[in-house]
TrEMBL record:
The lineage of its organism: Bacteria, Bacillati, Actinomycetota, Actinomycetes, Kitasatosporales. The chain crosses the membrane at residues 43-62, 74-97, 133-156, 162-181, 202-218, 224-241, 262-287, 299-320, 327-347, 353-376, 420-438. This is MFS transporter. PROSITE patterns: MFS. It is a multi-pass membrane protein. The keyword Acetylation does not apply. CDD domains: MFS_MMR_MDR_like. It comes from Streptomyces macrolidinus. It comes from the Bacteria.
């Protein structure tokens, strides 16, 4: 059983790292891609936007597929497809092909991301989940730190296509291993969960409108476009809620939505990820356009943030075990806000030491909350809904950063491109997460199915 858990943990970590690394190295490769394919700036931006829309719209439905057919099968399909799409992008003859294949890559990315958490939930008892989730978060931090460096090291000698070939071998190897290695799985439920295709379609449409509207806020000079998209998201979202209330087998079952702690954890993830990415967006602008640093030096200035995530994630698992999720997240959220306030002083004359302190606080605070809230989401729901829970967690971590960057870009426009007021507002937004953190459980609350199992065995 230990060997099987080790393979499950390795699959979860590598899957999460590939997705995180893909996004960070692409940012470095985009200027070279634009020159090589003679693409416009808008077309290059769509290589990121199209992927984000595809991923965000399907994460919850992909999690439900894992609940129904098995997380390992869905993970295997997602990894193999992700690797194949990456290879296709590496040989794409034009920007249209790149954008189309990025959509396909996003679809397979949506399959594998919830499965990385669903597999952990199925393999580990709830009381032992915190450390595997912490190790997964540490690995994501390593990918975030290494991405710009790896991207620069590959793009300079080998060109932009090399960053996509980087994914191919590990994705195919882990996908094939997941498909052929048989591992013990929890007993299947008496009835398989319904896919709820109408609900999945409505949720996907609402998320497409939401993500497109938010990205258009930052990228489009026409306010009508994001306004129409966001209004569409609200309208379709209302239809989705109405459908879910009436559906016999809803996409979001009561054993997920009926748990206040899970809802608070998801809201907290949206708030802190919006704060984190909005802060990094503004800080990168200041470091490069105001202080005149090149991308490599910018990455080095910000390096304390991912380092704090990497080193702090295992510590968070220990803190959760000793003090519980509420205290752990409740203390970490103000640390994140304090780091943002320190970085609000970025500018001429601001020392590299204080910048390092700010980024360190931001990384430590965000990493701690991310591990804690993710553990609560995954632990609070029964194993039969672990995929949906993982999909919701990943959706929160996709929507949150999009909201943060859109809000930061809009605020910088209204404040005449000064970073201080924008980051001060983001720090206040972060503190809105404190009441959500205080709604987390003091200790882990077992899912109903586990309580029932324990009662049955004692009887």
């Amino acid at each position: 059983m230990t060997a099987h858990r080790g393979l499950t943990l390795a699959s979860s970590v590598i899957g999460a790292v590939l997705v995180a690394l893909d996004g960070t190295v692409l940012a470095v490769a985009q200027p070279a891609l634009r020159l090589d394919l003679h693409a416009s700036l808008t077309q290059v931006q769509w290589t990121s936007t199209a992927y984000l829309i595809a991923v965000a719209s399907l994460l919850v439905f992909a999690g439900r597929l894992g609940d129904r057919y098995g997380h390992r099968r869905v993970f295997a399909l997602g990894m193999v497809g992700f690797g194949a799409a990456s290879a296709g992008i590496g040989v794409a003859p034009g920007i249209g092909w790149v954008i189309g294949l990025r959509i396909l890559q996003g679809l397979f990315g949506a399959l594998l991301q919830p499965a990385t958490l669903g597999m952990l939930r199925a393999a580990y008892p709830p009381e032992r989940l915190a450390m595997p989730i912490a190790l997964r978060t540490s690995a994501i931090g390593v990918a975030a730190a290494a991405g710009p460096l790896v991207g620069g090291a590959l793009v300079t000698p080998f060109g932009w296509r090399s960053v996509f070939f980087l994914n191919v071998v590990p994705a195919l190897v882990m996908g094939v291993l997941a498909a052929v290695v048989r591992e013990p799985e929890p007993a299947a439920p008496a009835t398989r969960p319904s896919l709820d295709l109408p609900g999945a379609s409505l949720l996907a449409a609402a998320l497409v409108c939401l993500v497109y509207g938010l990205t258009a806020v930052a990228d489009s000079g026409r306010p009508t476009v994001p306004a129409v998209a966001l209004l569409g998201a609200v309208a379709i979202g209302c239809l989705f809620v109405r459908h879910e209330r009436r559906a016999r087998s809803p996409l979001l079952p009561a054993d997920v939505l009926g748990r206040p702690a899970a809802g608070s954890a998801l809201g907290l993830l949206v708030v802190v990820s919006a704060t984190m990415m909005g802060t990094l967006f503004v800080s990168s602008y200041v470091l490069q356009d105001v202080l005149g640093l090149d991308p490599l030096r910018t990455a080095l200035w910000a390096l304390p943030a991912p380092v704090a995530m990497v080193l702090g994630a295992p510590v968070t698992a220990v803190l959760m075990r000793r003090y519980g999720p509420r205290c752990t997240a409740g203390m970490a959220t103000p640390f994140l806000a304090l780091g943002v306030l320190v970085l609000s002083r970025l500018g001429q004359g601001f020392s590299e030491l204080w910048a390092g302190v700010g980024f360190l606080l931001v990384g430590a605070g965000f990493g701690t909350v991310m591990v804690t809230a993710t553990a609560v989401v995954v632990q609070e729901v029964p194993v039969t809904s672990a995929g949906v829970a993982g999909g919701l967690q990943q959706t929160a971590l996709n929507v949150g950063p999009t909201v943060g960057v859109a809000a930061a870009g809009t605020l910088m426009t209204f404040t005449e491109v000064t970073s201080g007021p924008t980051l001060a507002v983001l720090a206040c937004v972060c503190l809105l997460g404190a009441p959500l953190a205080l709604r987390l459980p003091t200790q882990r609350t077992p899912a109903r199915e586990e309580l029932a199992t324990a009662s049955g065995s004692s009887g």
